[in-house]
Amino acid sequence: MKIIDIETFRLEAPLERPFAWSQYWTEKRTVGIVKITTDEGIVGWGEGCEGSSEHVVKDVLKPLLIGENPINRIGIWEKMFHSLYNRNEVVGFGGSAISAIDIALWDITGKYLNVPIHTLLGGKVRDEIAVYATGLYYTKEEFSNIEILLSEAKSYVDAGFLGMKTKIGRLSIEKDVDRVKALRDEIGYDLRLMVDANQSYNAASAIRIAHKMESLDIMWFEEPVIAQDLEGYLQVKAGISMAISGGENLRTRYEFEKFLSNRAYDIAQPDVVNVGGITEMRNIAMTANSMGIQVNPHVWGSPIMIAASLHLTSTFPNCPPSGDPQPFTQQPVMEYDRTPSLIREGISDTEFTMKDGYLTVPSGPGLGVNIDEKALRKLSIS
What we know:
With 382 residues, the protein is of the alpha/beta class. The chain folds into two domains: 120 residues, Enolase-like, domain 1, CATH 3.30.390.10; 242 residues, TIM Barrel. The chain is built from 14 helices and 13 strands. Helix 3 packs across helix 11. The chain is globular and about 60 Å long.
């Protein structure tokens, strides 16, 4: 079997209600998709080639990979990595381009062998994955009426989520703490509540806001400082009592190595469409597990990304081993974005079933999701 074509699609869909995190406002959702076709007619889908990484796929990786056997996933990963490493393009867009192609190769291999990706990875540890809701972004409407934010939080409670994550870092420290306190009062203390600063603080400011939130039982503080600031992470971790998480913006095991070996994270959050795909995320997860660092994948994309993350997470060992593992303690948990998305809801008829706060791992060949290419092309702007 050989690769005969690689196509890229940049999908874009407007938001009915713009929202923001600490860094900027957005009025649309965007996703980069790759389609790999083989000479046997098997098609694989991947995600990650958004923006400039699309050009990395088209101009650098595609000419390199036409004619390759897609089942040779590790060999192809190394070939892609070294071609971009020599160009100093692995970090950033290059890592995302590798991710998109790698996910598609796993999808092809699973379809060719008629097994799901989790079987290719060695088999599941668990059939379902505990999830928490991501939402609770800043909106202009909430600034004049916080009940809009609290109503959203209540909807996640009613849906059965085990926890939820909100944003901090855009307002003053005092106003953000008030916002988080209002959420905690609304949902009570039985559910987990996490905060995500999206790299908006220096170490001193991160420590300050963490101290002000100590009474609110925050499960973890995500990306308190700039993603590459190892010393900042270590300073924050030493200065506060709550768990620290990060890693969604790092690429490959080579960027993760110093953060893991220095125990900069209590919880690592690699992102399968950034870090180098399924192949590399598995490497990072096993390294983190051996160090007693929980891996809770960052997930914010299309059904392709959701499925890839579910397959991976189903194979992660409990950390640490336990006879009765609990989510958020020994079992990994996964992010489940609940903000409206025409891309997430519109390009596949595959439904991810949540029951009692858990998502079922797909069982079909490869990723186990059906992509509606006609719908995908309607949303494509490139």
